[in-house]
Amino acid sequence: IAVALLAFLLTDLLGSGSSIFVDRETVGVIDGQSVKYPDFQRKIEEAETFAKMNSQGSLSEQQQNQIREGVWRQLISEIALGKLYENAGVAVSPEEIYDMAAGEHISPMLAQLFVNQQTGAYDRSMAVNFLQQKNQDPQASFYWKNVETSLVSNRLMEKYMSLIQKSCYITKAQVEVEKAKRANTA
Q1: Is the pLDDT of residue 102 over 90?
Q2: Mean pLDDT along residues 102-122
Q3: Residue 138 CB-density burial (10 A; 0-12 exposed, 13-18 middle, 19+ buried)
Q4: Could you give the angle at which helices 138-167 and 94-102 cross, rounded to 10 degrees?
Q5: Which has the closest alpha carbon to 82: 180, 147, 152?
Q6: Which residues lie below 8 Å from residue 160, measured CB to CB, with a gap of 6+?
Q7: In this model, does residue 95 exceed pLDDT 60?
Q8: What is the predicted pLDDT for the residue at 124?
Q9: What is the DSSP track for 40-82?
């Protein structure tokens, strides 16, 4: 009986449901890369702080769940798509970020952030002033870091999708061959 009991306990302990040999720090694995709990939790806290800054209040349970899911999707994007971007040579320079914020090609996201209250239109001077002052104010610096992360992520996706779309080209000869195949009947 003792041997059977010991075998039962060892089987349970060493089985797939074991908690002794499991890495408790790993939240999940994305594309072969482990995501550690402290890193994941830090990103959630940053996202919650950013959301509170935007909403000027506390977050509901549903909003917190949405933030957790959003952070996980962002990690998937950073890890999995990051390798694709790197292999394709797609990047966003600091000059390009400035151009999206206060240059000629304003990001729609930033166009909503820097709106003149009287005119209701994008105010470039507000954006430039914010970018100049962000280093003196830790809260503004934190806010900009999150906005910049989102800008870069969106811009990388735009560039990569544009690269994919422009690399797919069908010649007139291919179109004619396809038409001829579809016109033939058995």
Answers
A1: no
A2: 86
A3: exposed
A4: 100
A5: 152
A6: 81, 84, 85, 88, 90
A7: yes
A8: 87
A9: HHHHHHHHHHHHHHHHTS---HHHHHHHHHHHHHHHHIIIIIH
Condensed to tens digits (0 to 9), the pLDDT of residues 135-186 reads 888 888 888 898 898 899 999 999 999 999 888 888 899 999 989 988 887 6
- Is the separation of the CB atoms in 96 and 155 below 8 Å? yes
CB 74 within 8 A of CB 43: yes
Whether 111 and 133 have beta carbons less than 8 Å apart is answered as no
The answer to whether the CB of 22 falls within 8 A of the CB of 16 is no
DSSP letters, 119-159, are: T-SB-HHHHHHHHHHTTT-HHHHHHHHHHHHHHHHHHHHHH
CA torsion through residues 115, 116, 121, 122, sign: negative
> What are the φ/ψ torsions at residue 136 (nearest 5 degrees)?
-85, -25
Look up the pTM and report it: 0.69
Chain-centroid distance, C-alpha 80: 10
